[in-house]
Amino acid sequence: RFKYDDALDAFGIHGVGGIVGALLTGVFAVSAIGGAGHSGWLDGNFGQIWVQLQGVVITVAWSGVASFVILKLVDVTLGLRVPVETELQGLDLALHDEVLRS
After folding, report:
1. Number of neighbours of residue 51 by Cβ within 10 angstroms
2. How far apart are CA 86 and CA 35, in angstroms?
3. What CA–CA distance (Å, rounded) separates 77 from 23?
4. Which residues contact 8 (CB under 8 A, 6 or more apart)?
5. Spatial separation of the C-alpha atoms in residues 71 and 87, rounded to whole Å
6. What's the CA gap between 39 and 5, in Å, rounded?
7. Cβ neighbours of residue 30 under 8 Å, at least 6 residues apart?
8. Among 7, 24, 27, 34, who pairs with 41 as Cys (CB 3.0-4.6 Å)?
9. What is the DSSP secondary-structure string of 57-89?
10. Measured distance CA(95)–CA(16) in Å, rounded
11. What percent of the chain has pLDDT over 70?
12. Left, alpha or beta for 93 (phi > 0: left; psi -120 to 50: alpha)?
C-alpha cells in the first residue's frame, strides 16, 4: 500500500493546479501576449499543448528526483519520523505543549 502523507494538501492544490494551468496555457494562449507563433490550441497552434506537456513532465521529474534526494539526506542525518510514542500522544501536545482549552 502506498502511503501518502500530505496534511496541507500541497500537491493537491499546487501540483495539480499547476499542471492543469500549464496544460491549459497550451489551449488558451494568444499570440498577442505570447508573441508570434506562440498561440494556443484555440488559435490553431496544436503544438503548444505538446510544448506545455513536455514542460510539465520535465518539471515533475526534476521535482521528484530533487525531493527524493533531499528527503534521503534528511532521513540519514535527522530522520523523517518522530518516535511512535510521540506520534500516538500527538505532536501538538508532545512537541509544542499545546492543549485544547474550552
Report:
1. 16
2. 56
3. 38
4. none
5. 19
6. 39
7. 39, 40, 43
8. 27
9. HHHHHHHHHHHHHHHHHHHHHT-SS--HHHHHH
10. 32
11. 96
12. alpha
Q: Which residue do the cell numbers 534526494 mark?
A: 69
Q: Which of 34, 64, 40 is nearest to 52 (CA)?
A: 40
- Give the integer Cα–Cα distance in Å for 22 and 34: 14
CA-derived radius of gyration, the chain: 21
The predicted model scores a pTM of 0.74
Beta-carbon contacts of residue 99 (< 8 Å; ≥ 6 apart): 93
54: Cα separation from own chain's centroid: 16
Measured CA to CA, the distance from residue 87 to residue 95 in angstroms comes to 10
Please, are residues 67 and 76 in contact by the beta-carbon 8 Å criterion? no
User: What whole-number distance in Å separates Cα of residue 84 and Cα of residue 74?
Assistant: 18
Task: Give tens-digit pLDDT for 37-87.
Answer: 789 999 888 999 999 999 999 999 999 999 999 999 999 999 988 899 988
